[in-house]
Amino acid sequence: MIRTRFAMTIMATLVMVGAVHAQTARDYITIVGSYVITPLATEVADRLKKAAVLKKSPEIQGIGTDAGFKQFCAGSGIDTPDIVLGTRPVKSSEMEMCKKNGVKEMVELKIGYTAIVVARQGEGREFKDLTRKDLFLAMAKDIPDPEESAKIIPNPYKKWNEINGKLPDSKIQLWGPNASYAIQGSIISEIMVEGCKQIPALKALEATDPKTFETVCRSFRKDNVYNEYKEHTAAIQDLKNNSNILGIFSDTFLRDTGLTNLPIDGIEPLPGSISHNLYPLTRPLLLYVKKSHATSIPGLKDYLTEITSEAAISTRGYLLDWGLVPMPLLERQQTQSNASELKTLPLQ
Questions:
Q1: Which pLDDT tens digit goes with each residue over 100-133?
Q2: Which of 80, 245, 308, 340 has the most CB atoms around its CB within 10 Å?
Q3: Fold of 116-282
Q4: Using CA atoms, how far apart are residues 169 and 221, in angstroms rounded to an integer?
């Protein structure tokens, strides 16, 4: 009996040791999130692996910002990602989910900027006067009746010059991302809603009938004038084959495509206008890191140091070749300090 109990005790101990070992066994970094930032994160990982700073290559999955946060906030164990990549700040609902599932300390690191751009094949002179109001009127399912502004009707516009006489007499063909791309939310809030507010009849609805305002300002038309793409590479090829199509993308996807980015509200999406937040559709490039993992996963601290380094994100950094627009010096220094100190966000 004593021998049996002793054997059972030994087995239980081994099981416990095995479980503890399983919880500390991962020796590589796991990263999920934004399609936009995945190539940049991969470039940093490849350089560190080549330099033998990392023994194993990180596991990096581009699944979109929203899906990335769901995995990141699912728990604090090593079976969950170390880093989530995002082109928007973490939502309060995601913070709450993280907190509920035991993610108690989260580090936010901004490494640069990107932008949402409207692009086409060929010159952009015909669209130099394009505004967010014009884009709303091209994309929206319903709009105020041009003859009776208090009345909401199905969008009748088929040509750009019907919306704005300064735009070309050409058919509206506009491609935008589907809901799997996090920037769709930004397109709704920063193009659709902001353009909607520039129309007096709809701006008035914001106060008098907010439910109708939300419905009208956030709904895309479904009549094949505005189309959602599932895969940005295929959409880019469509633009290259047809100069009449305009497409909405993150500018990091357009590297070496030869497409022309159009000015919006009179401001071109140039590095200077993006880095100083003058261009209206500027987006941050963000990493969120579990602090507990930064001190337990081999190489993670080294990875954070490198991806926030001047070599990577300065005005001459190697990530510029991958679409990153650098931040001003003071912002970079703040990010580097946050990475060094693992400064955490207050969980709401």
A1: 999 999 999 999 999 999 999 999 899 999 999 9
A2: 308
A3: D-Maltodextrin-Binding Protein; domain 2 (3.40.190)
A4: 20
Q: Output the pTM of the full model.
A: 0.83
Q: How many residues are there in the chain?
A: 348
CA–CA separation, 133 and 126 (whole Å): 17
**258-270 pLDDT, tens digit each:** 999 999 999 999 9
**Beta carbons of 43 and 322 less than 8 angstroms apart:** yes
* In contact, 343 and 337? CB cutoff 8 Å: yes
Overall average pLDDT of the 50-73 stretch: 95
The topology (CATH level 3) of 28-114+284-341 is D-Maltodextrin-Binding Protein; domain 2 (3.40.190)
Measured CA to CA, the distance from residue 197 to residue 191 in angstroms comes to 10
Look at strands 246-250 and 30-33 and give their pairing.
Answer: unpaired
Measured distance CA(181)–CA(87) in Å, rounded: 10
